[in-house]
Amino acid sequence: MPITYCRLLSLHIFRLLLPHTAVLSSSHLNRRRCCCSDSIAAGPSFSGKYRRKKVFTIIRISRKEKDYLAANGVCQGPGGDIHHTVARHRRTYYMTESENAENLLSQYRRSITICSCQ
Fold first, then answer.
1. Taking a C-beta distance cutoff of 8 angstroms, is the pair 76, 37 a contact?
2. How far is the C-alpha of 5 from the C-alpha of 55, rounded, in Å?
3. Residue 104 — φ and ψ, nearest 5°?
4. Which domain of life is it from (predicted)?
C-alpha cells in the first residue's frame, strides 16, 4: 500500500500528541477528513502503550490565528492544543479541537470578517 501525503501527515501529528491519543482526520482545508483516515483508524497496527483510546480532530489554522490563540491562553507544544509541522522550511499550524480553542477561533474569525452590506 503506497504511503500518501495524508497518511504521513496524520502519523507525524500522531507522534506530536500524547501516546494515548489517535488522529483520525487531518485537514488540508478546515475540518476536511483525510483520504486515508479510515484505514488509519481501523488498522490494529498500534498496541501496548500506543493503543489508541481518545480521538482528536485536527484543524489547520493560519499563523495569525495561531498568534491570536496563543495570546489568549491556548497552549502550544506536545501538551497543548496548537502543533506545527515543518516542510521545506515552512511551518504549518494545526489545532486540536477543544471547547475553549474552538470558541476563541470562531471569535477571531468573526472579528476579521468584513461586512460588505450597504
1. no
2. 20
3. -65, -40
4. Bacteria
pLDDT digits (tens, 9 = 90+) for 72-100: 999 888 888 888 888 888 889 999 888 88
Measured over all CA atoms, what is the biggest interatomic distance in the chain, rounded to whole angstroms? 61
Burial of 72 (0-12, 13-18, 19+ CB in 10 A): middle
Q: What is the pLDDT of residue 24?
A: 42
Residue 68, pLDDT score: 93
Taking the C-alpha atoms of residue 24 and residue 96, their distance in angstroms, rounded to an integer, is: 11
C-alpha cell of residue 52: 489508541
Type of residue numbered 19? P
Helix, strand, or coil here: 16? helix
Identify the bridge partners of residue 83 per DSSP, sorted by sequence position.
94
* Cβ proximity of 62 and 30 under 8 Å: no
- Closest listed residue to residue 108, CA positions, set 57, 76, 70: 70
